[in-house]
Design goal:
Strand content: under 5%
Oligomer: single chain
Number of strands: 0
Low-confidence stretches: none
Helix content: over 70%
Mean pLDDT: 90
Number of helices: 13
Structural class: mainly alpha
Number of domains: 1
Largest sheet: none
Shape: globular
Distance between the termini: 70 Å
């Protein structure tokens, strides 16, 4: 009898552990853990190489990063909450809400993460708290409405990505021009990536009445817009560099011009979903390269 009870208890414990592991894995997938790591890396590299290396050990930087990641994670959750039907067409194997994590739990997690992110930001400064509050609102608006509209949703996500770097400047006040240049870099590369993702998700978006650029203008014209954005981006970086920082040319060739040129070539040839998926991933690689380049400034 005792052995049967112990066996039953052991099986119950194993089942509970399995459920916890499954929930944790689903939560990490839902909150895009790799994207969160890139945000954290960007803020720490900005602090270390564009502010002061001693800042890396400052607990205020850790709190800033935690608050930013909480807000970003909440944004990913609410985005998936609203996009379950679309994602079942575009990315059926990656749908979490309604499967591993219930819709009510998803809303609860979004609320908890949002409130915690705003609270920590407000503790650091009223300005950081206001930025986090604005970010939570804009992420909700994007998920609920903006992402189904042409271009404006792409700009919203790009703006928030740039803000994730600018808040480091807002917290420590170095007013370094390079921080603004890197924020501009993050804005433009995210803008390009978001438009490419719209081309990748064309089928599901079109099914549910979204009005993204690829749906309204077609793939060919959307590519032309991306090329124009890249030209404006590269020109802006060069002009700002000559006006404020004057970094050597090889720096931009290695970390910016070469990968962006490769991106443009692949984009010109792409016409299938899997190709746009790869280009979207490569945009993320360029973002990481840009972050790493801070160490060589």
């Amino acid at each position: 009898m005792l052995s049967r009870y112990l066996c039953y208890s052991d099986n119950t414990m194993q089942a509970a552990i399995a459920r916890v592991k499954d929930f944790t894995a689903s939560l990490l997938r839902l909150t895009r853990v790799w994207n969160l790591l890139i945000i954290a890396l960007a803020q720490y590299f900005t602090a270390a190489y564009l502010v002061d290396e001693d800042v890396v050990l400052n607990p205020r930087l850790a709190l800033l990063t935690v608050s930013t990641l909480l807000v970003a994670a909440a944004g990913y959750i609410i985005n998936d909450y609203y996009d379950v039907k679309i994602d079942l067409i575009n990315k059926p194997d990656r749908v979490v809400v309604g499967r591993s994590i219930g819709r009510r739990y998803a809303l609860l997690l979004h609320s908890v993460f949002s409130v915690a992110g705003i609270a920590i930001g407000t503790y650091l400064s009223l300005w950081i708290g206001a930025v986090n509050l604005f970010s939570v609102w804009l992420l909700w608006l994007y998920s609920n409405t903006l992402k189904r509209k042409p271009f404006v949703g792409n700009v919203a996500v790009a703006l928030l990505t740039g803000l994730s770097i600018l808040v480091v400047d807002a917290l420590f006040y170095p007013h370094h021009s390079l921080i603004w240049i890197y924020a501009l870099f993050a804005f433009f590369m995210t803008l390009v990536r978001e438009i490419v993702k719209d081309m990748e998700d064309l089928k599901g978006d079109n099914t549910f009445g979204c009005r993204t650029l690829p749906i309204l203008l077609g793939i060919r014209r959307t590519k032309a817009i991306i090329f124009l954005i890249l030209i404006v981006f590269l020109t802006s970086v060069v002009v700002l560099n000559r006006s404020y920082t004057q970094l050597p040319l090889y720096y931009f060739v290695l970390f910016l011009f070469a990968p962006v040129s490769l991106l443009a070539i692949w984009l010109l040839r792409a016409d299938m979903k899997k190709e746009f998926t790869w280009i979207s991933t490569f945009c993320k690689v360029i973002l990481v390269l840009g972050i790493i380049s801070m160490a060589f400034v």
